[in-house]
Amino acid sequence: MNIFILIAFILINAELLKIHEEVKESFEGNNGWTIKNGKVQKEFCNSKIVFGGFEGQTIMSKLLIVPKHSYIKLSLDIVSQHQRGLVNIYLDHIEIQSVYVQQKCSENDYYVSTITSEFNHTGASIILVINGYAEEQDYKWGFKNLEISIQHCPQSCQVCDQGDIVEQCQIWKSFQNSWTATHKNLMGQDGWVSINGISGSSKCGGVPLIGGYQKFGQNQGLSKIIKLQPHYKLRLLVLWAKIDSWDNEYGLILFDGIQVWNQSFNLDNGYQIKVCGNSEPKYHTLFRRVDITVDHTGDQVKIDFLSTLDQGSDDESFGLRDLQIFYASCPDQCDMCRGPSSNDCIRCSNNLFQSMQGCNPLPYFYLLQSNFHYDKFTSSEGWILKQSQQSTIITDCQDKTIFGGYGVLGVGGIAEKQFFIPHHSQLRLQITLYKIDSWDGEIIIIEIDDEMIWDSSQYQYNEGNLCGTDYPDKLIYLDLIIRHEKQNTLLRIRSNLDENSDNESWGFRDFSLMYDVSNIVEIEDAFEYLLSLGILIIISFI
Ligand SMILES: *[C@@H]1O[C@H](CO)[C@@H](O)[C@H](O)[C@H]1NC(C)=O
Ligand SMILES: *[C@@H]1O[C@H](CO)[C@@H](O)[C@H](O)[C@H]1NC(C)=O
Ligand SMILES: *[C@@H]1O[C@H](CO)[C@@H](O)[C@H](O)[C@H]1NC(C)=O
């Protein structure tokens, strides 16, 4: 028989599905293993063929693509000259230490130890690493009967945790899958931008990576701004490969400039024998599987993969693969939310109005003006800035433009626009406000005809480091209804900031002004409708 690798889909019990099994004899292409410091040789134990001939310092690695799962069972027989095996087995970063059932092989002095282990696991692949750790040069080992079984995610789930029922895991919707290739040459960046220039893939043992040795060192990594469906949580899975002489430096993942994962690594974190990197054998390699869930809302996210490394990529480096990103979506009719139910909505879709009960239509408002809704608008649309600190009035914030912003609106800065509004008794105002950099207790104020109608003193915010300097910035989504009758009206937005706009600043976008129609009879109904919602002025905030 000439088939060594048999990928068999056999149900071994109600729960676990066998996905991989190495059983037969040809050792063609080393059965997909990448082997260092050793060579394959056919051996026998109890008349079964052993994938063997490995030595004290042999290390082998292999990547296996696996279906969606939450749990893994692995078993194999180690055949070696020593009772205790002197072999380490890893699945990703997890060392497999488990039940040994020992026997002697009938035809030689070798021992055979059966090892089985089960654990929670998620991700698009698994990486197996096996190494010998004997001092003696002529120490020999091998293995047979490698079997891997998984527990599938419930149908209709795209990612899951052990024990999840459909209702728990189907909240996660997949929207990014990158760096999953099984061959280095097929590993593309998938639109991710290399920070400081170095792009491309590499191979670490049997594992193709984006970045890696001589690619991602000091100040290098990957970044991308991703547009998103309305959501309240993000879940990110990735494989992080730590390579060479990390000395308590951190691997970092940032969402909107804010750390959502960090892990420090040392040069000796990893497998006992190095898998890839430079020539120094002391610097170990580790394939760390990451699975994080983060509260997040907004219509985009900027993700950075970075490190605190301070040396070049031939001395310390990292690589990535198997990126999967999932989101938990907002309720229907909701563009922005902090949870799954209708009263978790922060900003309703289709101009619905947000109240305690969720998103409801307000039939009696007409749109007067809508400004700054394009991602990259260029016109000031009749707004004027006073006491701005630059001739520029539109600035970039993440990959959108805002009116005002960093370096423009700081101490004393004012934005104003004059409106002529048909007969009305109420106004509805929508706006997205940005508080940028080091605000310390100051507020944004909105005035109509010199009268304050709203200020930001009571509001919590959605935070991220969006623009300006390194301080976290704050976003406020406002949807406000006020009683108002005057037709010729001045709308003013200002702040009580006390520092320059390069230290603390503000700006806005997504402005709409609507009015009700007072001279039609339904106004009474509209009013009652609002009262029935329990509140007349409702402000949407995070
Ligand atoms: C496996 O996952 C389940 C639920 O997801 C958790 O309760 C359990 O503690 C995990 N087991 C281990 C060993 O981490
Ligand atoms: C890593 O994360 C912890 C906990 O979130 C934080 O306290 C620490 O400052 C972070 N370390 C680095 C180097 O950013
Ligand atoms: C910027 O703001 C911070 C915090 O309010 C303050 O400590 C610092 O002195 C300010 N810097 C300048 C240049 O105004």
From TrEMBL:
Biological source species: Paramecium pentaurelia
Protein name: Uncharacterized protein
Keywords: Signal
Position of the signal peptide: 1-16
